[in-house]
Amino acid sequence: MSAHASAAGGPLLEIRGLHISSPSAPLVRGIDLAVHRGESVGIVGESGSGKSLTCRSALGIVPDPLRVSADRLAFDGQDLLTLSERRWRSVRGSRISAVFQDPASYLNPSLTVGRQLAEVLRIKLGRRRGAARREAVALLDGLGLRDPARVATRYPHELSGGMLQRVLIALAIAEEPDLLIADEPTTALDATVQAEVLDVIADLRRERGLALLFVSHDLAVVAQVCERVLVMRHGVVVEEGRTADVLAAPRHPYTRALLDAHDEYGLDRLRAHVPSAREVVHV
Amino acid sequence: MSVFRSPSVLRSPSSWAAAGILAVVAVLAVFGPLLAPHDPLAQNTAALLQGPSAEHWLGTDALGRDVFSRLLAGSPVSVAAALLSVAVGLVLGVVPGLLSVYLGRPFEWLSLRLMDTLIALPFLVFAIAMTALLGNGVIQAMVAVGILISPAFFRVTRAAALSVARSPYVEAATLVGASTPWIVRRHVWRHVLPAVAVTTASVTGASLVIVSSLTFLGIGVVPPDPTWGGLLATDLQYLYQRPWGPFAPALLIVATVWALNALADALRDAQTAEAGRDAAADDPSSGAPSPDAGSAGDPLFPVPDPQVPDREVVR
Amino acid sequence: MTTTAVAAPPASAPAPVRGRGRAGDASARILRVLGRGLSALGRTALIAVPVFFFATLITFGLGAASGLSPAASLSGDEATPERIAAINAELGLDQPLYVQYATWIGNVLRGDLGVSWYNGFPVSQLIAERLAITASIAGLALVIALVLGVSLGLLAVVFRGRIVDRAITAFATAISTLPPFVVSIGLIVVLSVWLKLLPSAGYVPFAQDPGLWFTLILMPAIALSLDPAAELARQLRTGLVVVLDQNYIVGARVRGLSPARILWVHALRNGAGPAVAILGMKIPTLLGGAVVTETIFSMPGFGMLAADSALRGDVPVVQGTLVVAVVLVLAFSLVVNVVLEALQPASRRGARAE
User: Fold this and answer.
1) B293 versus B169: which is more confidently predicted?
2) At what angle do helices C210-244 and C123-158 cross, to 10 degrees?
3) Which residues, 6+ apart, have CB-to-CB distance to B192 below 8 Å?
């Protein structure tokens, strides 16, 4: 279970009226989003829909030329909009964590993965050197990596995509955060490995009561993992609701188009692909 | 070259300043001795070590000679020596650079190791040694410097040629049966030429400094013929009496080098911009040639990461 | 080579290995690090050896091409053709060229660089004496370049895009344009002639008078240090700017690590590569550029020895200085490569700053 005391009711992550814009154009236009303790919420959308930026705002890492504003952006009751960099450091990793697409690029190529894991344990949890090393191996073991001691001595370029994503997940849960943000974590992985990683995430949720904000362009993956789903397009939420409801009875034409295209793709995967007018969704 | 029509080149003030300086230097190089108000060799014991005056714009030296005239008279030699050594270096570098890509492994290895050797040799010491031991003349000096700067041209040419040779476009052309000379003429040249132009500009600056250093040390030139470096040497001797003395030749050298470097930067910027435009247009493989491509076989003198541009430009 | 051998195949996990305990872990790590260092050493040596031999060939060729011999000056008044031939035979100068080369290179490899034609002293002794002087100047220049270059480079990165950054970059570019001899003369004019702060010529050994030694080598060291400092600052800045854009920096931020730690542990490790490489290349330039600086400051150093000997036609000394200089360059190159390997083990696979 999460090591942090729960706030009295209310969502863990609360976003209301989020606006993110570049000097030339608005990118996210009025998003409302809430993730409750232990809940798993998905955001579906194509690239450019603003889903990744939304996640970044919850971590305070929106790149500089862009401006962020919101009616409310809070975590466990604490306002995030006015947080100083220094205070952010006690939120990132400790309370809100993230894993991203292309795990290899998110690891320092010149340090072994064990060392990078131990670093977090030493710096943020105050472990001593030897204990940190051992705990790092234990974490890797807990994520299903075979021969974790050896993996810990490897450099990122020596490991496969699936293994690297597990390493990133290990880094993300090392401090037992309350919320894990997963931005397209399986998109760059092979199909079989995808399933494994999703299982790992599901197990973590069960064991630790971890809340999950899962972002993907792939409706099928989100459907597998999330209780609630938001559909984003061009910076706004076009549909929202319980996953089962949205999938069974989509209200917005865009959602319907997504579903149709996905069904067709799914069905035709083994046959010759016949383009149709509804494919227009894939820009 | 269309480079000069590129907007960034035309718009920035430093480009105009650089062009201006180079124009002045060119005039000095060609017409220097003719413009000198006094005979650069004429000594005048009545007027030794004087400061600037109406008669002698930059004063006189220890033998009463007009410094301004000497500066002008020394221009052709200094500039010509720099240019000619660059020419030597260019030929000795570009040709092997191209050949190393197309003549097979053994030649590639040999040329790489020879270039490594040239880089390993201490530049000035070797130039002095070669010049002095082979007769101590201007020609020897220019050839020596030319040989020692050829690796710069070699690297750039090789990198440009490699980046093209490995591109899918050229591979396709080869499969269809295009011969190597044809490929070189059609594709490689287009990439090699701009890169070599940039290198030429910056190397000329370096070469001017080297030649000035050599003449400063009295290598490769016979006194009393004036050279920019030689003037600095005499200035040094009488520094306590004429502390302002070194200013003029030093300024001339520094300004020329700066202008050449600015020219190199402008060429490089324009080339990168053009390559970006080209990439969209026809050849998907054409991009600014990475300076490190091909140096993978050269761990002795690693070239900085290709993502790191050689010189930063501040506008 | 441990790292290359155990690269895990993409689809499968590595075979399980029984736990080795802490001591076993530590010694395994040391072995791996050693292995990497040795492989870097080996790879560079493979290139360095042929380069060394080519350099000796060129050096020897230069001497042979000069056609010089001490015979004329040694025999003086008795310079008859027979006397000259006798002296040449004594010195082995009548042998075929390849024999001369073989003898010479054989001696060089044993540390015997021959004897000066000018004053009869062993070349190695002459060089050793002078090298100390040049080394102290170059050493101080290196320290200054490091301090100046690294601080300016870091400042430029931390404040990138702002005025500090632009100013530093402009300054660095301007400095690189200045040839060392211009800087030297400028320093003398300002510090010796006008301000009368520092002496402008001569050298005393450190043992004799440390204070004076320092004041004497300070200006030449500064003059030599400016170009490497500027290059260092620029390469460090550019290398770090590229790295700071990378995803793993975002990854480190997301884990809540401090900016200082991110800079020192993650960014520098990957971004310092170009700067280290440039520094390695500049160190031999400190030797080569020293010629002019030594002349200006009247320092009897290695560079001056080479220049004077060349002008005197003292071939053995010239050859000796060239060989020593090349060996130093190659040695530094080896060191740089080992350091780079230690910093960035992934660099060989081209996975450096990606």
Assistant:
1) B169
2) 50
3) B94, B98, B157, B160, B161
Q: Which of B176-185, B294-303, C92-101 has the lowest mean pLDDT?
A: B294-303
Q: Is the pLDDT higher at A208 or at C15?
A: A208
Q: Spell out the residues 6+ positions from residue B21 whose beta carbon is closer than 8 angstroms to its own.
A: B255, B256, B258, B259
Residue A179 domain-assigned?
Answer: yes
Q: Cα separation of A214 and C151, whole Å?
A: 42
ipTM of the complex: 0.85
Classify residue A55: in a domain, yes or no.
yes
> Against a cut of 0.80, is the pTM above it?
no
Domain encompassing residue A232: 13-110+155-263
Contact B263, B113 (CB under 8 A): no
Residue A182: both structure tokens together: 């997963």
Burial environment of residue C32 by CB neighbours within 10 A (0 to 12, 13 to 18, 19 or more): middle
**Which amino acid does the sequence have at B67?**
V
> How close C166 comes to chain B (CA, Å)?
7
Q: Do A171 and C255 touch (CB under 8 A)?
A: yes
Mean pLDDT across chain C, nearest whole number?
80
Which CA distances in Å does C52 have to C58, C302, C305?
10, 20, 22
**A276 has a pLDDT exceeding 60:** no
How are beta strands A40-44 and A228-233 bridged, if at all?
Answer: parallel
Q: Which of B134, B305, B314 has the CB atom closest to C352's CB atom?
A: B305
Q: Total domain count for chain B? A: 2
- Token readout for A148 is 């974790």
Q: Decide if B189 contacts B262 (C-beta within 8 A).
A: no
Element containing residue A238 per DSSP (H, E): strand A236-242
Cβ–Cβ under 8 Å, residues C305 and C27: no
- For residue A99, the model assigns a pLDDT of 94
CATH value at residue A223: 3.40.50.300
Answer yes or no: do B313 and B196 share one domain.
no
Burial per residue of C267-293, b for 16 or more beta-carbon CB atoms within 10 angstroms, e otherwise: bbbbbbbbbbbbbbbbbbbbbbbbbbb
Q: A118: closest CA among A102, A129, A103?
A: A129
Instruction: Please state, for a pLDDT cut of 90, what percent of chain C lies above it.
Output: 11
**C234, C177 in Cβ contact below 8 A?**
no
* Overall number of domains in chain A: 1
Which residues from chain B sit within 8 angstroms of residue C238, using beta carbons?
A: 308-309, 312
- Does A36 reside within a domain? yes
Contact A108 C22 (CB under 8 A): no
Closest residue in C to B236 (Cα–Cα): C185
Q: Name the strand (E) or helix (H) holding A17.
A: strand A13-21
| Residues 134-173 (C) with a CB less than 8 A from some CB of B | 166, 169-170, 172-173
C289 with B307: Cβ contact below 8 A: no
Residues B278 and B296 in one domain: no
pLDDT score recorded for residue C3:
32
Quote the domain boundaries for residue B296: 290-315
Q: Which of C295, C322, C337 sits opposite B299 (nearest CB)?
A: C337
**A271 burial level (CB within 10 Å; 0-12, 13-18, 19+):** exposed
**Residue A215: CB atoms within 10 Å:** 25
Give per-residue pLDDT as tens, C240-261. Answer: 988 988 999 999 999 999 999 9
Do residues B173 and B240 share a domain? yes
For residue B269, report the phi and psi dihedrals to the nearest 5 degrees: -60, -45
Strand, helix or coil for residue B217 = coil
Residue A212 β-bridge partners = A40, A180
Write out pLDDT tens, residues C209-232: 888 888 888 888 998 899 889 989
DSSP string, A105-118: GGS-TTS-HHHHHH
